[in-house]
Amino acid sequence: MRLLGYLGQWGNVAKEAVDRSMIVAKFLCLLHVTNNYLCSPTLVYGPSMLPTLNLTGDVVLAEYLSTRFGKVGLGDVVLVRSPENPTRIVTKRIVGMEGDTVTFLVDPMNSDRSHILVVPKGHVWIQGDNIYASKDSRHFGPVPYGLIQGKVCCRVWPPDGLGLLA
Amino acid sequence: MGTQNFLWSFAKKYFTFGLIALTVSDRYASIVPIRGVSMSPTFNPRSSTLTGLTDDHVMVEKFCLEKYKFSQGDVVVFCSPCNHKEKHIKRITALPGDWISSPYAHDALKVPEGHCWVEGDNFASSLDSRSFGPIPLGLVQGRVTYIVWPPQRVGKVERRIPQDGLPF
Questions:
Q1: From which domain of life does this come (chain A) (predicted)?
Q2: Which of A12, A94, B56, B91 is geometrically suited to a Cys-Cys bond with B43, CB 3.0 to 4.6 A?
Q3: Which residues of B touch A87 (CB under 8 A)?
């Protein structure tokens, strides 16, 4: 009789534990979906997007809906999975969509030599705003649209730089 | 009042289920159908006109996306470089730094850093790296591990390294 009582007690405890962990699991799922399908804050750093983004760590809000529906256009700042190292994500600006003609300086530090090329189907041409210190399409060529992860829509940190990014 | 409550709990249940399903399919594994014959005989071995609507369904695992470590012979799902809405399933035949014999130029080609060379098992009808070149590893969406449907074809997908000397 006592044994049954204990069992019943433990049963309740187990049930409670399962319920609690289900709530946590659901919350984590919601977090994952929001982070991957709606928007998420991202810390960006590096010299390649000066003067739009600072050298040492701006927090920007990236949204994923417009990428998913193919609404990313010319002049948008985007997060792109680097074609040279898939574990890195870089921030660049779209300079040419598929079919556009792009003119770019090959080596702006030393010469004025420029190239003209047409962006192939399903690709985009990305460049950093600071063309002197940016590794972008000028090195690795046009990138497939599938590598674009999200569109940067506004800056949230530092507070005085708060606002939409054009 | 009663029906409203019922509808509310119904909607909540489905929403939760959707959230969980989406998370699992993004992070762990998902099941996708295979269309076309570009990977036959590994998938869809007979032509689809004979078998009707029994396309193979395969399980795709996503754990490999954490480190992007692949080995030669893995079957992977990736976004087409020409159209981001299309997904293709092909076999990786060369990894960064490997040399590959280029089909058109008749010379060797080095696969660049962060890219891989993918080819279908069915050389005759497959749109793959032989037409669009090496693809960035970032386009890869997962690795195919098991065939789960139809029942008579359930089994593991082996890692197979195609022999050299491609039949052109």
A1: Eukaryota
A2: B56
A3: 67-68
